[in-house]
Amino acid sequence: MLKEELRFHFPLHLTVTSYQSVSLRKTQLLVIHLYVPAPKLADWTEWGDCSKKCGSGESIRRRFCLYPDGRPAPPELCDGKNREVRDCNTQNCTALSKF
Hints:
Blueprint (H helix, E strand, L loop, with lengths): L14 E10 L2 E9 L4 E2 L15 E6 L2 E2 L16 E6 L11
Antiparallel strand pairs: 1-2, 3-5, 4-6
């Protein structure tokens, strides 16, 4: 009896595109061709709130790595930046605006 083990470290959406079975005397070999759709970065989120009211804060926006069916994918599977930071509220703080 032939035993095979497959291990995956993250969820995969697999589609069998073709297969063929070949008999080799007492052993049967099954070859399966799989298609794994590549994940892509989604659109950017809106810019987040500024971290400070004055005196130079930061605002962040993100985009997530997703499989074509919308499920999250590990970020390392997507090319490109998934996080951007920009300066905001760069004006000096006055005595009243600190509170």
